[in-house]
Amino acid sequence: MSYLSLILQITLIVVISPLIGQLMIKIKSKAEGRRGPSLLQGVRELGKLLKKGEINPIGTGSAFALAPAIYLVSTLVLSAIIPLIALKLPGSSNYDLFWVVGILLIGTIALGLGGLDTATAFGGMGASRELMVAALIEPSILMAIYALSIRANSSNIFKIVHATLSNPQQIASPQSALALIGLVIVVVAEAGRIPIDNPSTHLELTMIHEAMVLEVNGPKLAMVKLASSMRLVILIGLVVNLFFPIGISYSTSSVGSIILGIVALVIKVSLLAGLLAFVEVFLAKLRLFRVPELLAGSFVFGFLAVTASYFLPVIKA
Amino acid sequence: MSVGSFTSLFYFDIGAFLFFTMAIAWRKSLFGQVRLLRANAIALFLLGLLSGIYAKDAALIGLSIVILLVRAYGIPTIIARAIPHSGDQWESTRVVNTTASILIVAAITAFAYILTEPLVALNPTKRIASLPVGVSALLIAVFLIVTRRRIATQLIAFALFDNAISACAFVLTEGVPLVVESGALLDVLLLIFVLVALASNMRSQTQSMDIAELRELHE
Which domain of life is it from (chain A) (predicted)? Predict the structure, then answer.
């Protein structure tokens, strides 16, 4: 049953992520007074890309060929090591939050190398920007993780979620609030959303992620698109479960609680994704030179969360 | 109110106080900074109110209402008059840029924690454990006074300095006596009045408040 629920979790992420991505577009369109495409548009686009042939730019080598696969596989691994629907999954006692950072970076770096391999101006520019953002994200995500692990006396994700679930009033503390703000900024940056990057435009001077994958086409582009939307869903799911783990299944033995876990995850992720999309309507993209300011801000939130856990100790019930 | 719920509310509020202090160092918009100063003063008011309700002390509740009126309404409103309503409402030239400032703010917080550790050790209750927040707000205010050029930000930092002193008082001693507090408030109020009047006078004569651009008053 435990392996079955692991497979179920990965499949769930693969299936819902194009839908959630489309839901965000839909909500944004509605808020701007447009109708917006149907929720299945993302799936249709993936199907269209999969049917297309492939063109490899002249002079590209294995970095370009392998990048989309590494990006997708690293994202699939990520979806297997995070408590999204159940608190016990095979190997769950080994999975640290630091793994999440490392695996996220493997995908980003593979894609960055692929972008550089095309030797076009856009590929290189996009890759350098994406890696700059990734390098700035890393310290703040580590700080936020550190703050959360003080609370649970462990940096194991499953233990942190378990500690939150068994002592929910820990959430109502300033250090959790600060860590939450820091993590949300990091998630927005990592997923390449407004105000760091705008996934819906292909404007030369401002695009980051889209510039890096400009030469990727056909089934490979389908892989990159699917993996990007999966990353967003996984990160949102991670934040949601670190702070509001309501509904997550304690064990993998009963079918009912697993189904409840799935339903709760889908509802929570859709709500937070919808909220993010709605807030994006009111924001403009930051200039690239101001991105370090925002990420330094998120680092400071993480840092304050850590220091606050020393001078505002957690109150046990 | 039980001890547990009082402490968690108190911590939450003092966390908000620290957050708004840090946000003042981050924001560039002068009106935004004034709004953050208001929020900071409201967090201070809630600190007083919470302590007053917890200790069942009517004088303390009265004091916090005075704080609400003067620090969250009066002082920010006066400071907002020092901001030109047409023209530059942004603090674009700083001695230390924004990214460096917020990182320094983080370092100041850690420094304040180390600095107050011996003080907290004298009487380690849960309430006094949050003293580093007050001290770091104090140091952040000094940092802002030193590194900002616009008169409005310097006034905001000065008001912040005073808020931080009151926050330290609430953390350490359940608030200062009403006489002392009202004396301090009048002092700050008078100083801000004078500075705002001076600022608008100087602006009407020289079109600029930036010391680097003043020619006549140069030595």
Answer: Bacteria
